[in-house]
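W.,

You were right to be curious about this one. When I first looked at the sequence I had no strong expectations either way, so I just let the prediction run and decided to look at it fresh. Below is the sequence, 261 residues in total, followed by the output.
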Amino acid sequence: MTAPVTSAGTLWQPASGCDDRCRDGGGGRRGPVGAVVRVGALAAVLLGGVLLVMLSSAALRTLSRGILAVLGVRLVWRGAEPRPGSLLVANHVSWLDVVALTAVRPVRMVAKHDVRAWPGIGGTAVRAGTIFIDRTRPRALPETVAEVAGALRAGRSVVVFPEGTTYCGPESGPFRSALFQAAIDAGAPVVPVSVGYDSTEAAFVGADTLGESIMRIARTRGLTVTLAAAPALRPDPGADRRVLARAARASLGGGGYRLAA
C-alpha cells in the first residue's frame, strides 16, 4: 500500500537561489552567424522530431540525439546502464539535462506541468509519455506517484529530478522524497545519475528564458555533458522514502560542473 505523501509541507515549489551570476561566460564562443545557423538547424530537427514522435515514442531517443548534434553538445555516459524499469534520479542544472538523459535510454520523464505550454517541446513531451506533476496541487501527488509506479512495473524506466528546480551546478538542493515512494511500491531499483557540464553556460537559472538559453548554448563551443550513474539502490518493501532519497543524494557527490574528459 502506498504510504501517504501529502501534507501541509508538500506544496512543492522549491527555489534554488541561483541566478544569472552563476554563469561566468567562460569557454569558447561561436560567432552570432554560427549560433543562428545552429538554432535554425535545431528548429528543423524539432519539427521533424515532432512528426516522428507522433508515429513512435521510440523516436524520442533519435530526436534527443539530433538536438545534441545540431547544438554541438558532446554526451558522455559513465557507469553501468540501468536495467529497464528503473527510477533514475538526477541533479538538475538545465533543460538540456532532459535531452541528454532521453538520448541515452528509452525513458519516461517526470516534468512540471508548465512544460506542456512550451512551444514545440510541450506537445512532443505529451506524445512521448511524459508524466506531469503539478506542485501547486498536493492532493494530486498520490496520483502522480501511482502513475510512476505503474510505469516502473510495466518495465519502463522513469527519470525524476528530485531537487524540484535547477541549480547552478556547484550548488545543489535536497532531494524531495515523494516520488521515491513509487520505486518502493513497484519494487524498482533507484539509479542516481550525476549530471555535469564543463561550462557554466549550460545553467538554466534565474530569470533565464528558454530562447535565451538555447541561443547561449548554440554559441558555446565544445560543450560536454557527462552523465555518471552510481550503483543502483534496491529498496526493501516498506522502506522509508526519506531515507532512500537521502541515500540517493549522498551517492551523487558534488554533481553540477566538472571537467569532462
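Here's what jumped out at me. Residues 1-11, 257-261 have pLDDT under 50 and may be disordered. And, maybe more interesting for your project: The CA atoms of residues 193 and 229 lie 4 Å apart.

Coffee later to discuss?

I.
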